[in-house]
Amino acid sequence: MQSTSAGYYIVFGIASLLSVVWLGLWALQLDRGLAVTNLADWGSAGGVTWGLYIGAFIWWVGIAHGGIILSAAVRLFGMKRYLPVARLAELLTIGALSMAGFYIVIHAGRPDRLVTSVVQAYPVTVHQSPLVWDVTVITMYMVMTLTYLGLTVRYDLARLRDDLPNILEPVYKVATIGYSEAEDEVIERIVWWLALGVIVMAPLLLHGGVIPWLFALLPSMPGWQGAIQGPQFLTIALTSAIAGVIILALTVRRAYDWYHILTDDVIRGLTLWLGLFSLLFLWLQLQQVITGVYAAPLDQRTLAAAKVTNPYYQFAIGVVLIALAYIFAQSVKPHIFSVRRSLAASVMVLAGTLTEKVLFVVEGLEYPTFSMYYNTPGHYFPSPVELASLAGTIGLCTLFFLVILKVIPVIELHAIEELRGEGHAPVEGDD
After folding, report:
1. Residue 193 class from Cβ within 10 Å (0-12 exposed, 13-18 middle, 19+ buried)?
2. What sign results for the dihedral spanned by CA atoms 415, 68, 55, 208?
3. Ordered DSSP codes for 186-215
4. CA quadruple 82, 267, 204, 140: dihedral sign
5. What domains are defined for the chain?
6. What is d(CA 58, CA 64) in angstroms, rounded to the nearest whole number?
7. What would the pLDDT profile of 290-348 be if each residue is shown by its tens digit?
């Protein structure tokens, strides 16, 4: 935390450049309106009203929800093997939720609308608006995750105070106000109940409940409607989150030589979980395709035919299939496993789930049951401004992690103590 390499500054510079470019383009959008994007009205104007902005929003929300579910499962079920990545998953949730919330602001066109149209009339709009439901769920989970992190980090800060950056001493004093060792047992119970709340609410309010219901209950959109959307959203969330955690874990273990903490065994286990949820993702996609092309109503058949012939959909399914093939092979023949292949599989899975979510949004709008205009809707492709938003939010999320690496320990002291007890990590004083 107190030494910085040249590689850190290089990554920081690249992430800053991506963020600044995007913020400049967003300023252009604020000045000229959403006309600078390819988000247009249906019919004579062509395109769709939602596109990459909402597709990326769902993707970021899925990563966030999957991240907190992963961390909660580690604590709730005592999965000590994955304790070293629990805090990384919590931080991934905070970063991804921030980017998802940012996309709501971006897509609103004028940020002041969130105050005038949402906050001011919240008791009414919360019953009627999908946007307000999203804001509510994101806010609730941000509060839960920050509470989760704030409680667990006190233990580490109190014991590592002498090794932390002196410049941040005021921050650490605030974070550890009133701390005593007597609270550790109480906090452990509180965190367990928070984890239970996360696990219980995940299929009801998060990517297995309210968010997919907002789409699935619209009968005029054959691409969205259907009971399968809940399980589909949940599997995509968990798949994306595990892929993100693998990338984070491999990045920090390479940067800080944490091979004895984030071991190959941990990465192998996460890769197997990635394979399980990738398999479920592909199976649910198959269910949608089969029920869409075989004796389905005309609107569903039209959409299914458009989906399976779309090169971007074929790309999304193809990269997840390749990743799954590797994971299956390395589970049968362990010598095939390598962290580089696991990293590549994780990147492919993230690319595939992002592409599928964007297509889910776009095709649902391009192929409605009832056309709003006489003209045939035009086809949508993300504009440079929208594509820059994706690169920019990835850059902002990267900056978040680069900063947090210098502020708090990203691996819990409990995880290190657990490894020391098993003889897998060096004891204090070792080089």
Report:
1. exposed
2. positive
3. HHHHHHHHHHHHHHHHHHHHSTTTHHHHHH
4. positive
5. 6-422 (1.20.1630.10)
6. 10
7. 888 888 888 888 888 888 999 999 999 999 999 999 999 999 998 899 999 999 999 99
